Amino acid sequence: LFARGASAGGVRRHMEILRTRLCAWGPVGVEAIALKPPGAPEPRLAVGRANGVLELWSTATWHLQLSSSGHSKRSLRSVLWLVAEDGGWRLLSAGLHRQITEWDPETLLPFIDVSSGGGPVWSLAAQGGSLLAGCEDGSVRIFDASGDRGDIVVKGRLPIGNTRLLSIAAVGEDVVFAGGCDSRISKWSRSTCTCEGTMRLEKAATGAETLVWALAALGDHGLASGDSMGHVHIWDPENCVVRYRFAKHQADVLCLAASDDGNVLLAGGVDTQIS
C-alpha cells in the first residue's frame, strides 16, 4: 500500500497496515475422555467435547496435537481406543447423534459412520473383538470390531430394559454390566442373553430414581459404579452385593477411571472434585 502523501522529491512512501480482529472465546465442555495404556505411542489422550470436536493430546508434553472439525448436531458422549488387527490403534466415538464413528488417528478424519440401531448412544465398551454400545432404547448393541480399520459389523443386541442405558462395563469374555436411570445395575450373559443378577441402589429422599452415570471394571477388585447421589460403590460381581460405599461427593459422580490392575480408582463429577 502507498501513502496518499508524497515526499518533496516526489517519491512515494510505503506504509504497512496491520489489521486484527478479536473474537470472543467461549470454553466448550468435555463430555468424554479415553487414554491409551501406558507405553502406547503418543498421542495417548482422546477428548470428546460437547460441540462434536474430537481432540488428541500428548500426555508427555500436554500439547494439543490434532483436532477435528465440530458439528452443531453432534455430541460425543463416549470415546474408546481399540487395538487394531495389525497391532495399531483404532479410535471410536459415539453420542446422542445416534451414530458410532471410527476416526483415523493420524488425521482425525472419519473412516466410517455406523448407525447404532438403538438411538442415541450413552456409553461404549470393548469386550474381546466386540464393541458394545449402551443405547437410549434400553438395549446393548453388539458390533464386531475384530477386523481392520473402518470395519464395524452389527452382531446382535442384549435387551436390557425399556429405559436408557447410561453406562456399561464388560467383565471377562461373556459378562456385561449395565446401569441406567432406574436405580439398578444388571448383570447379563452375552452367550445366553439372560440376566444373572441385579444390584439395587438407594433412591433420593424425594423418591426420584438414581442414575448410574458410570461403571468401571476393577479386575479382581470387583466393579465400581458412580451415581447421581454422589456415591461410589464397589460391588462383588459374582454375588451382586455391595462391598464398599464412598460418599465423598456432593453431587452426581459422572465418570470413573481405574488403573489396569484395579488398585487405583478415580472419580469425578459435578462438584468439581476428583476423589
In words, what does this structure look like?
The protein is an all-beta fold and 275 residues long. 0% of the residues lie in helices and 50% in strands. It is built from no helices and 24 strands. It has strands at residues 2-6, 12-14, 30-35, 45-49, 54-57, 64-67, 76-83, 89-95, 99-103, 110-115, 121-127, 130-135, 139-144, 153-159, 165-171, 175-180, 184-189, 194-200, 212-217, 223-227, 232-236, 241-246, 253-258, 265-269. The strands form seven sheets. A four-stranded antiparallel sheet has the order 3-4-5-6, with no helix packed on it. A four-stranded antiparallel sheet has the order 7-8-9-10, with no helix packed on it. Strands 11-12-13-14 form a four-stranded antiparallel sheet, with no helix packed on it. A hairpin with a 4-residue loop joins strand 20 (223-227) and strand 21. The radius of gyration is 23 Å and the shape is globular. The relative contact order is 0.08. The mean pLDDT is 87.
